[in-house]
Amino acid sequence: MATGGRRVTCCCAAVLLAAALLLSAPEATEAYDSLDPNGNITIKWDVMHWTPDGYVAVVTMHNYEQFRHIGAPGWRLGWTWAEQEVIWSMAGAQATEQGDCSRFKGNIPHSCKKDPVVVDLLPGTPYNMQIANCCKGGVMSTFTQDPANAASSFQLSVGLAGTTTEAVKLPKNFTLRNPGPGYTCGRAIVGKPSVFFTADGRRATRAFMTWKVTCTYSQFLAQKVPSCCVSLSSSYNSTAVNCPTCSCGCPNPNGTDCVKKGSPHLGSATGGPGKWSGQPLVECTWHMCPVRINWHVKQNYRDYWRVKITITNFNFRMNYTEWNLVVQHPNFDNITQLFGLNYKPLTPFGGGINDVAMLWGVKPDNDVLMQPGKPGSVQGELLLRKDSQTFTIGKGWAFPRRVYFNGDNCVMPSPEYYPSLPRMQAL
């Protein structure tokens, strides 16, 4: 396990320099991810009915990212109205602020903000305030893990907006937060009106007008430092290779951005269970990461080899619901059996290359990674068949090339420190 053995260190300055170089990458490439090159969240805005001073629309967000989901406390969608539009009413979601509605007498709009921000309603919302695909607390899964919950919808009645397709002005400056930054949204583009079918499939209706907005994710925009790191260990070497020092940033001199385990001030520092602070509060470690993944080469049989994966949560402010891992390794085309894990192969490079696996927990046993001490870790194992032409334990081959946790690329140790075979043992 990564909790013992030699501690591998690295210069904090080098880590910070690398982060600075990544943050200074050209804007056009910030959101590109080679393991999910086409991943995005698409917002579809369908005008369904005209009203005396505007329209009623259904807004649906579809998560087309392969392994990145939006967890608690959920998405926050914002935009800027083109003119003086207001939201008369909503179902399935609500605006966070009403704004200044003093110009209205009698019937007061739901929101008069020029730049409203909308959030999903919570589970258990009364039925008369719901629509399909709403009221999940803003949580959106991926199509890979849970396709039934990979979309989120709400309805709104817009006033002072025009009552024809020619008169309607498209909103602009769309923003999507989860709830922090990370997503960049393009402009709204009018497309072919959506078509809807009745449950029996015998009648089709269509929207009067449809436009779409595409939002892509950048880890560098989401946080200044990485959010996870990887440690390595094996049964054939007693030395554990820990996460590099300051993988996720270094503690300040006063130590105010981390808390020692068992500290009497921990309860007040966390803000209470379930309260969102916007920033992780981590246990003080040499790597300072909210999450650590340990890859342990457990057993080496004649025809098979076995890997144990342990994920540890050091973030006192977060339970990671429906977590997932994406791991790149050349032997994943020979996965034989899994223990405590679900699996789906990803093939981002095409050409029959199957070296990327998406892994996630089994409900209800280990699909939630709880806060430290509750118990704060989950485990699973992989059994892989050996390919006699490629398999070797030597030169770090048995360890992953890349590891993602919840869609974020984790910091790996330097290959020169990987656990090695004893000198006299054959490869």
UniProtKB/TrEMBL annotation:
GO cellular component labels: plasma membrane
Recorded superkingdom: Eukaryota
InterPro entries in UniProt: COB_C (IPR056900), COBRA_pln (IPR006918)
Species per Swiss-Prot/TrEMBL record: Panicum hallii var. hallii
GO biological process: cellulose microfibril organization; plant-type cell wall cellulose biosynthetic process
Key words of the record: Glycoprotein, Signal
Glycoprotein among keywords: yes
Protein name: COBRA-like protein
Lineage, broadest ranks: Eukaryota, Viridiplantae, Streptophyta, Embryophyta, Tracheophyta
Domain COBRA C-terminal: 227-261, 282-416
Signal peptide segment: 1-31
Family: Belongs to the COBRA family.
